[in-house]
Amino acid sequence: MSAAPSVVRVDLGKRGYDIVVGGGVIAEAGARIAHLRPGANVAIVSDTTVFSHHGAALRSSLSKAGITAHEVLVAPGEASKSWRMLEQVSEGLISARIERRDLVIALGGGVVGDLAGCAAALTRRGIDVVQIPTSLLAQVDSSVGGKTGINSPAGKNLIGAFHQPCLVLADSDALDTLSARHMRAGYAEIVKYGLLGDGVFYDWLEAHWQGIFAGGDERIHAISKSCAMKAAIVARDETEQGERALLNLGHTFAHALEALSGYSDRLLHGEAVAIGVALAFRYSARSGLAAAVVAQRVERHLRAVGLPTRISDIAGGVGASADIMAAMAQDKKVSRGKLTFILVKGIGSAFIARDVDGAGMMRFLDDEMCGR
């Protein structure tokens, strides 16, 4: 018999919700959703690959609970976070006659969660969404906190809305269908939590990361801990007016690198985050904020896991330093034209650095591109 799932609460008052983490929770989805919203119809938004793995189990669970389900399927991959696919999903919800008191279920990774959440936020001026993340990255990051969105040619997630889910079901067993590459990409978001605010958790990850990949209790602990850290920050700063920006450690670099890679499989989001985190630590060390040995320790761990840590690790390249600077200038954290980065004083000690010197950053990127 499976152990009872771990439950993390996102405390947003009347809009608060549970994150349920454990093996087999997709099979329990129907009962939980029926209890949450009696009599509701649902639309399952998923991509074709994820639905082939988990769609039957979810539909069976919903059917047993007497819930009518419709399907809106999209192609897998970051390219689906587009205006065209947002329109397709929104029109699919309307065609399925999903009403404001019904539910949208986002079954998939971060792309599906962001896309479905954005469509739910806009359609009929707001339909509640249940997130069922099936990738490690989505379980520990994108499914929690209410950020939804699509990409613009100018940058990642530039169009979207805050739209909190009413329930998150993170089935740790669903991760068994992931490739090793996608598991590593998700792990980058887990390690981020230790690096930004919990050195003890980072120490634990260095010792136990292989158990997370193998599954079982260590995987559930890592997911639950990551969700609890994010939930606490979101409860204090829901719309990223201050502290929540810490969750973007490595992301200013990462989003620029993703844009310059064409949002393609050349660079997964978690891989970009790993490079971005390593860059943030190296820049902090270069600026005298953190010890060089700390940046080296972080890079060694990411390398041991199998994650990239250098811009030169990106197959096909991303252009010149000036291209990266131009892409970072489109980042959502830019305020009145001034660059904002999350920098560090050490492991577990991140802070928001506003108005980072552009010339100094350009010199840093020049050296990084040259391997110095």
Helix count equals 13
**Cα end-to-end separation:** 54 Å
* Count of extended strands: 11
Main sheet: strands, sense, barrel: 7 strands, mixed
Please write the CATH class name of the largest domain.
Mainly Alpha
Q: Give the H and E element order.
A: EEHEHEHEHEHEEEHHHHHHHEEH
CATH topology of the largest domain: Dehydroquinate synthase-like, alpha domain
Just name the CATH architecture of the largest domain.
Answer: Up-down Bundle
Radius of gyration from the alpha-carbon trace, in angstroms: 20 Å
Contiguous low-pLDDT stretches (5 residues minimum) are none
Mean pLDDT: 95
How many domains make up the coordinates? 2
CATH homologous superfamily (4th level) name of the largest domain = Dehydroquinate synthase-like - alpha domain
Cα shape: globular
Structural class: alpha/beta
How are the strands of the largest sheet arranged? 1-2-9-6-5-3-4
Portion in strands: 15-25%
Question: What percent of residues adopt helix (DSSP H or I)?
Answer: 40-55%
Keywords: Amino-acid biosynthesis, Aromatic amino acid biosynthesis, Cobalt, Cytoplasm, Lyase, Metal-binding, NAD, Nucleotide-binding, Zinc
GO molecular function: 3-dehydroquinate synthase activity; metal ion binding; nucleotide binding
Binding site for NAD(+): 110-114, 134-135, 147, 156
Binding site for Zn(2+): 189, 251, 269
Give structural attributes:
372 residues, globular, 2 domains, 13 helices, 11 strands, Rossmann fold, lyase, Dehydroquinate synthase-like, alpha domain, metal-binding, two-stranded antiparallel ribbon, NAD, alpha/beta, DHQS_C
